[in-house]
């Protein structure tokens, strides 16, 4: 089988005109068997998470915002109308969570791999069930009356949360999959039947592409697919 | 002129830098909003960097409020919303710097007092200064006390004692 390749997604013109460096980058990989069952992480991954947890100290939660990558996401949050001191950027959220819980308790292979990629690189990675996707991923503004996960393999339209028009959403050809930096629509998350994973991340101005790809590959490697 | 009396941050981006001003062939002066929004985003990035540096210097008991509120994101913000974000950040930064400067001044005064206490304890009888007062970590307290108890009071023998360690919770 050919090695997977990180792919650049599309950005709607009205977004690209305002945020020139905004991008969505994805990596499609075969899913480890039973990925959606909160299957246990291998000892190697758990050890890497423990090592990462010991490197994080209390002061980190405050000084982290001065580092280039968390700073870039904080600035982008401000630019799109989010307050990063209320809606924490992923790199800060994971540090606060580590301090609150005293470590990174294992949450299953997929979640552990996503956490490791975030802690190691500062770049957030999410996962979708690639079997439910219709076309490449991209970012655009939500239209009137759109719902998350509509048009895919999810549940009925009534159960799908509505997206306020004008919000920035991750989408495929069929419709919105998630509000930017928000939770993935229920019908598009990996399940135990998932055979292929679409790992993706959001690149913002100030985050070098090398870090973006490193985050995706760290996650893929942790999932044992590399 | 009113503009001169306002802080630079609170002026519109066009007023500050002339960014986004577009003069047509007919002489009509318009505003290139996209360029103005780009300039505002650059200002927001700069303010965010300065605010992050201030946050690193702050301590929890400084009681600085860091939140500036959101605009129902994630979405593309208009000129007015970006200006409000910029102004709110500038306001927060101004407040944070004032609080940090006031603390630095209090700590400097406490350090001077401590030096005077150490030089001449008899002139500062029973005065106490904590490590926190001078901006040091820990729970120690410098306390001017009489040497040998009551005898010290009678003989005017004074000394500065530093208690160490934090009391058990």
Q: How would you describe the overall organization of this protein?
A:
- Chain A is of the alpha+beta class.
- Chain A has helices at residues 13-16, 43-55, 60-63, 68-79, 90-101, 109-121, 209-222, and strands at residues 7-8, 10-11, 23-30, 126-129, 138-141, 168-171, 176-179, 196-203.
- Chain A has a four-stranded antiparallel beta sheet, with helices on one face.
- In chain A, strand 6 (168-171) and strand 7 form a beta hairpin.
- Chain A starts with 6 loop residues before the first strand and ends with a helix.
- The mean pLDDT of chain A is 90.
- Chain B is an alpha+beta fold and 169 residues long.
- Chain B has a domain at 120-169.
- Chain B is 48% helix and 12% strand.
- Chain B has helices spanning 2-5, 13-17, 33-57, 79-119, 150-155; strands spanning 21-23, 29-31, 128-130, 141-146, 158-163.
- The longest helix of chain B is centred in the middle third of the chain and has 41 residues, at 79-119.
- The radius of gyration of chain B is 26 Å and the shape is rod-shaped.
- In chain B, 18% of the residues are buried.
- The model of chain B is unreliable at 1-6 (pLDDT under 50).
- Classes of the chains: A alpha+beta (226), B alpha+beta (169).
């Amino acid at each position: 089988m050919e090695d997977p390749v990180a792919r650049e997604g599309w950005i709607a013109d009205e977004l690209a005109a305002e945020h020139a460096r905004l991008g969505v980058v994805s990596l499609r990989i075969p899913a480890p068997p039973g990925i959606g069952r909160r299957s246990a992480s291998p000892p190697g991954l758990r050890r890497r998470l423990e090592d990462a947890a010991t490197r994080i100290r209390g002061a980190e939660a405050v000084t982290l915002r001065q580092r280039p990558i968390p700073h870039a996401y904080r600035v982008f949050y401000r630019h799109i109308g989010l307050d990063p001191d209320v809606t924490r950027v992923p790199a800060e959220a994971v540090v606060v969570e580590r301090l609150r819980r005293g470590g990174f308790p294992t949450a299953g292979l997929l979640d552990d791999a996503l956490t490791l990629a975030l802690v190691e690189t500062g770049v957030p990675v999410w996962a979708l069930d690639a079997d439910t996707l219709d076309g490449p991923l991209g970012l655009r503004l939500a239209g009137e009356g759109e719902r998350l996960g509509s048009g895919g393999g999810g549940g009925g339209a009534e159960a799908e949360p509505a997206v306020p028009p004008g919000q920035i959403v991750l989408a495929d050809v069929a419709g919105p999959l998630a509000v930017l930096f928000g939770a993935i629509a229920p019908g598009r998350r990996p399940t135990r039947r998932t055979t292929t994973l679409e790992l993706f991340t959001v690149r913002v101005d100030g985050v070098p592409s090398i870090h973006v790809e490193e985050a995706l590959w760290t996650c893929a490697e942790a999932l044992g697919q590399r | 002129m009113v503009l001169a009396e306002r802080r630079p941050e609170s002026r519109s981006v066009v007023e500050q830098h002339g960014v986004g001003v577009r003069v047509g062939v007919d002489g009509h002066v318009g505003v290139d909003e996209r360029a103005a929004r780009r300039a505002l985003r650059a200002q927001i990035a700069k303010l965010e960097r300065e605010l992050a540096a201030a946050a690193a210097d702050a301590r929890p008991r400084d009681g600085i409020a860091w939140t500036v509120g959101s605009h129902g994101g994630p979405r593309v913000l208009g000129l007015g919303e970006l200006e409000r974000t910029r102004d709110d950040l500038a306001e927060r930064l101004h407040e944070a710097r004032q609080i940090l400067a006031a603390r630095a001044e209090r700590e400097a005064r406490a350090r001077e007092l401590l030096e005077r206490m150490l030089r001449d304890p008899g002139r500062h009888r029973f005065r106490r200064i904590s490590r926190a007062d001078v901006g040091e970590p820990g729970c120690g307290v410098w306390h001017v006390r009489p040497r040998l108890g009551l005898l010290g009071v009678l003989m005017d023998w004074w000394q500065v004692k530093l208690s160490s360690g934090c009391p058990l919770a």
